Amino acid sequence: MISVSSTHHRIIFHVDLDCFFAAVEIVQHPEYRGKPVVVGADPKQGYGRGVVTTASYEARKFGIHSGQPISQAWKACPHAIYVYPNFTAIEQASHRVMDLLRKHSNAFQQTGIDEAYLEMTEFCDYSNAKTIAIKIQDDIQAQTDLSVSIGIGPTKSLAKIATDLHKPHGIMIIFPDQIESILSELDVNTIPGIGKKSKYVFYEKGYKKVKDLFRASASQLYKDFGNCGKWIWMVIHGLDDRDIIEWHDRKSISEERTFAEDIQDYAVIKGKIKDLYQSIHKELKEKGQIYRTISLKIRFQGFETFLRSRTAEFPIDSVETGIEILNDLLQEFVQNPKKVRLVGVKLSQLEPRPKRKQNKMDRYYSGMY
Ligand code: TTP
Ligand code: MG
């Protein structure tokens, strides 16, 4: 008989592929293995526009990272191999990995192109979790030639934090009784929900490391940061009780418009994006659905097309949040001298809007991502 005591903790695995787009490129071109590979815009001998999408760990040693201007990457490492993302191969690889992962648990949730959560409470305990994680790593490596890192912890957010602490090809466990000791010395932006930009708001109020957050009460964090503060307090105290909800990657809703004439007035472009977004947001709302990923498509004269997405940690429930994300995604293009032909908006990672039965975290959905 299995007895479950009040101190029984969940075990969640968070799996994330290592330098995913670059790894896919290396599988297609084994001669790239061990070399600096940079995926992103064309560097054009240092004069290219656009950014780095991701880079192999060898390239990261030169300081190259996602989001960096490609011209800077070129300066840091002109002899790297520069490639465009091969979306067909990337999507295929993602599906193969997700199909393999899905077999390891009956509760699986994909949360991005290269990451997923598995509820493992029924299948292991903290003493054999590492052995199971190694099996999963080996299985994926053998079947796809791709490397994953696995974070393990009692909640989704702690498992996700763990993954990033031991990359690449790492397995990291945050044991329930070691949360504070493991997190204390880390920067506040280790917490999902505190981003590269928003961390400065925390710094200004004296919260630099996670230990500074541990010193604060829930009500103090609420006073300082509103709902986001409450969420952070719950995360660091292991109280994020979100379930693992399967959603279907291919489910999405989108709309696009071609302008009657190619245009360059970004006020008009922004307005059109907002209209498209509000119309599909309304449609989803009427169907009782929420979403976590927002994508922007933009096509310039000459058919050059870009897709940019952002996935939120929480379902997006307010139009204001969505508009803010889209405006942010659009920023990358406003300096582009070419005229715009078409814009599109896609909402994906759809989930039913939680009804009567809400768990603790559902109440803090709005405004947080
Ligand atoms: P990440 O998992 O954030 O990054 P990664 O897999 O390249 O590297 P890591 O080993 O640190 O996990 O993102 C997964 C893929 O998503 C990444 O390979 C490229 C793509 N991506 C973007 O398109 N835009 C972005 O801003 C980022 C960060 C990633
Ligand atoms: Mg990854």
Strand content: 15-25%
User: Cofactors and ligands present?
Assistant: thymidine-5'-triphosphate, magnesium ion
Helix content: 25-40%
Total strands: 12
Note the overall shape. Answer: globular
The biggest sheet amounts to: 5 strands, mixed
* End-to-end gap: 41 Å
Rg over C-alpha atoms, rounded to the nearest angstrom: 21 Å
Low-confidence stretches: 1-6, 360-369
Please identify the structural class as seen in this structure.
alpha+beta
Number of helices: 13
List the strand order in the largest sheet.
Answer: 5-6-1-7-8
Helix and strand sequence: EHEEHHEHEEHEHEHHHHHEHEEHE
Question: How would you state the average pLDDT, rounded?
Answer: 90
